[in-house]
Design brief:
heterodimer; A: alpha/beta; 5-stranded parallel β-sheet; 8 helices; 27% strand; B: mainly alpha
């Protein structure tokens, strides 16, 4: 029996297990997936929790429900990958040998990397919304918050779902309008990038959207530390930003397993071929989803298109044929913009987000780079599609690679 | 696509003077852009950062590394990096190293 071992049963790992279990001969291949956590979080839903649109119950289901029959699931933490011996050690002492290894260990937030973020004010006046604990604590805080200056600060990139902080602040604008206190809230978006929108065409189409909502942008803001006593973010150049309520997107890093095993880059993401996901160091290790060092957005969408490309390629590879450079960096995502509207972007390594229409057989088209109610609706039904179609590795009528159909370009 | 002449070579660039084809870069070009960015001379400490960034970006479709990636990857701490490339180091290094402006997905 050949052994395929998958570390991590989040979006990418679960989709790989489902796709490959169907494709690999059961008499020839044993497939095992390892994850220490019992619960699968629908992570796109965390954004809605602070505003009371979703509760915790709306975003959790047992991981086991999505692992197909014929895949061994081990609920344990991996301690170390030993590529030279072709095995993974678990913290409970078990050792799992593999012929092929898929690292799908994701990315996590690291507030402890920025002095002053954690401490007595953590989850009192400083919150994250990338964890279910952070998002629910923030929901409780926002219910009774009386206004002041709300700063959303991205510590540094790359981050998981890079549009989420923008969505958060646009939803906050809507939320405070609903609560009747928008005139008592100042909204500030601080980013290390040169602007909220940086791609030339998207900037042209969306540049005015934050201004129109009365959201101020502080570009090239690089937080060195947070002073909780005076409620200030302090930049490396010593400039400061005051806040009453800080919503932080802390530094993101790959899993410690990756770092411990010497398989990661400077932020513990696995260097891989950006079109095939094959490790640059080991010819039987792949990294998929947020764990991989890819120059595209870390997202469930990217993981989904990646897994589609990877699954067929993997079958070629184990047959002794070469991997084809199939993944093009494709990601598409709805961006909530508040007041029941949303935007849609579709891009890859080469093609930046363009305006036009995104065709979807039977349902679409959806407008690209334009606020519509339909895009908001698309985002809301996406949760059903995630649990029922995507995670189970079933096909959506979406091409895995970027299609220029419907896009306006010169 | 705009072009400009730097160090005797015609290269493609965007409106802010970032090279759009990183393979057209040379050390001579870097020296000229560094002067435009207000740096007096490129020392070995500058070059170490520039070379690391180019090497890193080459494997990632030429996307510019972020501040954190540079500091961890090179071992140069953030204060030193600000001293080498004042104001916005990530942006400044990207321009001198012939990489695109640091950008997000949208």
């Amino acid at each position: 029996m050949k052994r395929l071992l998958i570390i991590g049963a989040g979006a990418a790992g679960t989709m790989v297990a489902n796709r490959l279990r169907r494709k690999l001969d059961r008499d020839e291949w044993k497939v095992t997936i390892v994850d220490p956590v019992e619960t699968h979080y629908y992570q796109p839903g965390l954004l809605f929790i602070p505003f009371g649109m979703y509760s915790k119950d709306d975003v959790v289901k047992p991981k086991r429900d999505f692992i197909p029959a014929g895949v061994e699931m081990i609920q344990a933490a991996a301690e170390l990958v030993e590529p030279d011996r072709g095995r993974v050690k678990l913290t409970d002492g078990r050792v799992l040998p593999y012929d092929f290894l898929v690292l799908a260990t994701g990315t996590q937030i690291h507030p402890e990397e920025t002095p002053g973020l954690q401490g007595p004010e953590w989850q009192r006046s400083i919150f994250d919304f990338y964890t279910v604990e952070g998002a629910t604590a923030l929901a409780e805080h926002l219910r009774t918050w009386q206004g002041g200056r709300l700063v959303v600060d991205v510590v540094d990139n790359p981050i998981k779902c890079p549009v989420a902080p923008l969505e958060f602040i646009m939803l906050a604008d809507w939320f405070f309008h609903q609560r009747g206190i928008r005139d008592r809230v100042r909204l500030t978006y601080a980013t290390p990038l040169p602007g909220a929108f940086t791609k030339p065409i998207a900037s042209k189409h969306l540049g005015g959207i934050l201004d129109a909502k009365g959201i101020e942008v502080v570009p090239e803001f690089l937080v060195e530390h947070v002073d909780q006593d005076t409620k200030r973010l302090v930049h490396y150049d010593e400039s400061e930003l005051e806040y009453d309520l800080l919503v932080t997107v802390p530094l993101n890093k790959g899993d410690e397993l990756v770092a411990r095993s010497g398989l990661g880059d400077e932020l513990a993401y696995v260097p891989v071929d950006i079109h095939t996901f094959l490790s640059k160091k080991h010819d039987n290790i792949f990294a998929l989803g947020d764990a991989a060092a890819l120059p595209t957005s870390k997202s469930g969408s990217g993981a989904h298109f990646s897994v589609e490309c990877f699954a067929d390629n993997f079958l070629r590879y184990v047959d002794g044929r070469e991997l084809l450079p199939t993944y093009d960096g494709h990601v598409n995502c709805f961006i909530e913009s508040g007041f029941g509207k949303g935007l849609l972007i579709d891009f890859n390594y080469e093609v930046e987000p363009l305006p036009g229409r995104y065709p979807l057989p039977g349902i679409g088209p959806f407008a690209l780079l334009r606020q519509t109610g339909m895009n908001h609706w698309g985002k809301m039904i996406f949760r059903w599609m995630y649990w029922n179609i995507l995670l189970k590795g079933r096909g959506l009528p979406l091409p895995a690679r970027v299609s220029m159909s419907g896009k306006w370009h010169n | 696509m705009a072009t400009r002449e730097i160090a005797g070579k015609t290269v493609q660039c965007d409106e802010e003077g970032y090279l759009t084809d990183p393979t057209e870069w040379s050390e001579e070009i870097a020296k000229v852009i560094a002067t435009e960015e207000g740096l007096e001379a490129l020392t070995e400490a500058h070059w170490a950062v520039i070379r690391w960034c180019r090497e890193e970006a080459a494997g990632k479709n030429w996307s510019s590394p972020t501040l954190r990636q540079i500091t961890i990857g090179t071992g140069v701490n953030t204060k030193e990096l600000f001293a080498l490339f004042p104001k916005g180091p990530a942006k400044k290094v990207a321009r001198i190293a012939g990489l695109g402006k640091p950008e997000g997905c949208v």
